[in-house]
Automatic annotation (TrEMBL):
Protein name per its UniProtKB record: MFS transporter
Membrane-spanning segments: 68-93, 165-188, 234-257, 277-297, 309-326, 332-354, 366-386, 398-417
Gene Ontology CC: plasma membrane
Keywords on record: Cell membrane, Membrane, Transmembrane, Transmembrane helix, Transport
Localization terms from the record: Cell membrane
A molecular function (GO) term: transmembrane transporter activity
Gene3D superfamilies associated with the record: MFS general substrate transporter like domains
Source organism superkingdom: Bacteria
Residue span, Major facilitator superfamily (MFS) profile domain: 238-430
Keyword Ubl conjugation in annotation: no
Topology in the lipid bilayer: Multi-pass membrane protein
């Protein structure tokens, strides 16, 4: 039997290294691309609506069960499919047209949110309805999230990709300001149902925007041909590149311990400060304010290095841990702003480094691994942190969520620094 060698992958995109920060007038340079501008506008609406649904969904679960552990269990249902099938989703993204996949995933999201809106507005919602919707959306995310990551590069090309990644994060966090605030108003006035209805409409608007993109202005990427061993190929590729491997390991640590703020903030709103649904939405909004600031600042970054990923991760985890100790609601809110800023400086750096270190033909699988670790870590950490908050309190849970990553990432940073001083390697290049 004759075996044919796999075709070589296109070259890795060069990582931009600038001698100085770009001028402020270039902060939104990616929006000069029509296709990206259209997609980003629809994405901002969608992200605002997703945040509305997320806040309403978390609070509805807490309201129906009276338990923060239910919020953690819902996180496991929503992120668990990515943990189990994330790499398969990345392979699908590498094989098929990304725009077609996004139309399918957004259509499924529309149907799920619409059904949930109906049962809530009719007053017949039970906790299993919320859990079922979270699980369906979790399976949608398996393809939708890596597809979105890869699609950005197809819209703007490699030169503008770092800027577009930062603007994507800005849009996500601006949605995180608008969505929780709007959801909080709806929760205390008319209930959770309208948040789900608005998200359904936003998914429909995204589908419309995708159909209006001009194919002639997109940057085509090669589709991966069908052959055996492609999932293992993606894992080996990521493991062989330190910039990708260590960035994903660090992100995994943060995802398990630090990225379960919905569980932690529900505990603070319900048990520590007694602010209810309005306070829960406000806390999430403050995190998003800091994150939006971090996303805009990230457009000024001159270069992307592995050591920057390590430092940003340490700063974020330390900020979250210290925020848990702040005694008043005002001080706690200020700490959430700093925490959000730290998270976005880390995540934009990590996303850019992983994407720009990946060959275009295998990027779907690499980004699926990235998203798998990010969301799968939350699926593992959500129930754990829910039990911690339930049994020892929100402050102890949040302190733990930052302190453990500080120790683990600190050790990783020391190991990498020692390796960089050896003749065999350097952190700087990743």
């Amino acid at each position: 039997m004759v075996t044919t060698a796999a075709p070589p992958s296109p070259p890795t995109e060069p990582i931009a290294v600038l001698s100085s920060s770009p001028p402020w007038r270039q902060t939104f340079v990616s929006l000069g691309v029509r296709n990206y501008r259209l997609f980003a506008s629809a994405n901002l609406i969608a992200m605002s609506a997703v945040w509305m649904q997320r806040i309403a969904q978390d609070w509805l679960a807490l309201e129906l069960t009276g338990s923060t552990a239910a919020v953690g269990a819902m996180s496991a249902l929503q992120f668990g499919p990515m943990l189990l099938f994330g790499l398969l989703g990345g392979l699908i993204v590498d094989r098929y047209r990304t725009r077609t996949l996004l139309v399918i995933t957004q259509s499924l999201s529309f149907l799920t949110s619409a059904v949930l809106a109906v049962v809530v507005l009719l007053g017949v919602a039970q906790i299993w309805h919320v859990f079922a919707a979270a699980l369906v959306l979790g399976f949608v995310t398996v393809v939708d999230n890596p597809a979105r990551q890869v699609f950005t590069g197809q819209l703007v090309g490699p030169r503008l990709l770092p800027n577009a990644i930062s603007l994507n994060s800005s849009g996500f966090q601006l949605g995180g300001i608008i969505g929780p605030a709007a959801s909080a108003v709806l929760l205390v006035s008319v209930g959770a149902g309208w948040s789900f209805a608005i998200n359904a409409l936003a998914c429909a608007s995204t589908v419309v925007a995708l159909t209006r993109l001009r194919s002639s202005e997109m940057h085509p990427v090669p589709r991966a041909p069908r052959r055996r061993g492609q999932l293992i190929e993606g894992l080996r590729y990521a493991a062989a590149k330190p910039a990708i491997l260590w960035t994903i390991v660090i992100m995994g640590v943060l995802a398990v311990f630090s990225q379960n703020l919905p569980v932690l903030l529900a505990g603070f709103a319900d048990h520590v400060f007694g602010t209810g649904a309005g306070g829960y939405g406000a806390f999430n909004t403050l995190v998003a304010v800091g994150a939006l600031t971090g996303a805009i600042l990230s457009t000024r970054r001159r270069t992307v290095r592995l050591r920057t990923v390590v430092l940003c991760a340490l700063g974020y985890a330390a900020a979250q841990s210290l925020t848990a100790l702040l005694p008043t609601e005002t001080a706690f809110g200020a700490g959430l702003v700093v925490t959000g800023l730290g998270w976005l400086l880390f995540i934009t750096c990590a996303n850019t480094l992983v994407q720009m270190s990946s060959n275009a033909a295998i990027r779907g699988r690499v980004m699926a691994l990235y998203v798998l670790v990010l969301l799968g870590g939350q699926a593992l950490g959500g129930p754990i942190m829910g039990q911690v908050v339930e049994n020892v309190g929100a402050r102890a849970g949040m302190l733990l969520s930052g302190a453990v990553p500080v120790v683990v990432i600190g050790v990783i940073g020391l190991v990498l620094a020692r390796r960089s001083r050896s003749p065999r390697g350097r952190i700087a290049g990743g």
